[in-house]
C-alpha cells in the first residue's frame, strides 16, 4: 500500500466497517483549490441530415451535396452522416452578407 496516495489510503481505511473518519480527517480529505480539476460538460449531441437541413433551411438533398463536396463540417459514423449544430452555426456565419446601400462620392 506504499504506492497508494494518502487520500486514497484514507478512503480505503474509512470504508471498512466501524472505520468512520473524524470530522478533522473528513475535512482533510476534501480537495483543495490546487487539487481541483475541470469537469467537462457532456458533449454536444450530433444530429442527422434531416435535422441539419431544417437548421440550415435547405433540403436534405442539398445537405448531401454539401457533404459530397466536403463543403460543410460533418462526421461519418459508418454510413451515417452526423453534424454538430454549433459547427453548422459557425459554418453558416461565413456566408453572412452585409446589406446596405453603397454610396459613391
Structure, explained:
- The chain is mainly alpha-helical.
- It folds into two domains: 1-31, no CATH class; 49-93.
- The protein is built from five helices and two strands.
- The radius of gyration is 27 Å and the shape is flat.
- The mean pLDDT is 76.
- Class inferred from helices and paired strands: mainly alpha
Order of helices and strands: HHHHEEH
Quaternary structure annotation? single chain
**Main pleated-sheet profile:** 2 strands, antiparallel
**Number of distinct helices:** 5
Rg calculated over all Cα atoms: 27 Å
Low-confidence segments, given as residue ranges, are: none
**Shape designation:** flat
Number of domains: 2
Helix content: 25-40%
Strand order of the largest sheet: 1-2
Tell me how many strands there are: 2
- Percentage of residues in DSSP E strands: 5-15%
The rounded distance between the terminal residues' Cα atoms is: 83 Å
Global mean pLDDT: 76
Helix-strand blueprint:
Layout: H1 6-14, H2 23-28, H3 49-56, H4 60-68, E1 75-77, E2 80-82, H5 85-93
Antiparallel strand pairs: 1-2
Which keywords apply here?
mainly alpha, 2 domains, two-stranded antiparallel sheet, 5 helices
Quick structural summary:
The protein is mainly α. 39% of the residues lie in helices and 6% in strands.
Amino acid at each position: 500500500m506504499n504506492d497508494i496516495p494518502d487520500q486514497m489510503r484514507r478512503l480505503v481505511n474509512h470504508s471498512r466497517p466501524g472505520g468512520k473518519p473524524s470530522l478533522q480527517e473528513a475535512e482533510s480529505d476534501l480537495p483543495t483549490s490546487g487539487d481541483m480539476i475541470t469537469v467537462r460538460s457532456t458533449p454536444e449531441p450530433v444530429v442527422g441530415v434531416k435535422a441539419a437541413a431544417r437548421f440550415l433551411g435547405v433540403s436534405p438533398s442539398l445537405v448531401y451535396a454539401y457533404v459530397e463536396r466536403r463543403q460543410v463540417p460533418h462526421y461519418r459514423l459508418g454510413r451515417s452522416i452526423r453534424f454538430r449544430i454549433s459547427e453548422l452555426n459557425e459554418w453558416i456565419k461565413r456566408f453572412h452578407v452585409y446589406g446596405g446601400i453603397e454610396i459613391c462620392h
